[in-house]
C-alpha cells in the first residue's frame, strides 16, 4: 500500500527502475510540495540507487542558503516565478551528485494567492548536467491544497522522464 495515488506510484516505480538501469541519480528542490516528490520516489524499494538528496526550501531564506537562489531574484520576481525555480533547479543539481534535478515552487492555497499569482500557480523546472532545461508554468486553479500538490508531483515526475 502506498501513501500516494496509484498513478503517481506507478510513475515513481518506472523512474526508479529506468534510472537505476541507466545509472542516473536525481535530486529534488521543493517548496509547495514540502518534500513529497522525494517522498514518492523514496517510497519505492531500491530508490537509494537513484535519489541522491532532496532540498525542502519552503522559505526564501532556505532557498538562498541551501540552493544559492539570489536574494535579488526573490525580491524582483518573487518566490513563485520562473526565474526562482530555474535557480532552484540549478542549485539542486550542482549541490548534489545527481545527474538530473527537478524543482517546484508555487501557491497551493487555500490562501496566499493574488490576482498576479493566483492559488494553483506552480512553476516547475527540470535540468540535466548536460544543460538540458525544461520549465513549466502550471495554472492548476483553486482545486484544493492536496490536489494542487498531487498535480505538481505528477508534472514533476513527468518532467524528470522528459529531461533524460
From TrEMBL:
* Protein name in the entry: CinA family protein
**Limits of the CinA C-terminal domain:** 9-162
Instruction: Give the source species.
Output: Rhizobium mesosinicum
What the entry lists under InterPro entries is as follows: CinA-like_C, CinA_C
Superkingdom of this protein's organism: Bacteria
Amino acid at each position: 500500500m502506498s501513501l500516494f495515488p496509484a498513478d503517481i506510484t506507478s510513475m515513481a516505480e518506472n523512474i526508479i527502475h529506468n534510472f537505476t538501469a541507466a545509472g542516473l541519480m536525481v535530486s529534488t528542490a521543493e517548496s509547495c510540495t514540502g518534500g513529497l516528490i522525494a517522498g514518492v520516489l523514496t517510497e519505492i524499494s531500491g530508490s537509494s540507487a537513484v535519489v541522491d538528496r532532496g532540498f525542502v526550501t519552503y522559505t526564501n531564506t532556505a532557498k538562498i542558503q541551501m540552493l544559492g537562489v539570489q536574494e535579488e531574484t526573490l525580491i524582483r520576481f518573487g518566490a513563485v516565478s520562473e526565474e526562482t525555480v530555474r535557480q532552484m533547479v540549478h542549485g539542486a543539481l550542482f549541490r548534489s551528485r545527481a545527474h538530473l534535478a527537478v524543482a517546484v515552487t508555487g501557491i497551493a492555497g487555500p490562501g496566499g494567492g493574488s490576482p498576479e499569482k493566483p492559488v494553483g500557480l506552480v512553476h516547475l523546472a527540470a535540468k540535466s548536467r548536460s544543460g538540458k532545461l525544461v520549465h513549466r508554468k502550471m495554472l492548476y486553479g483553486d482545486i484544493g491544497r492536496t490536489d494542487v500538490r498531487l498535480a505538481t508531483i505528477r508534472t514533476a515526475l513527468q518532467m524528470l522522464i522528459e529531461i533524460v
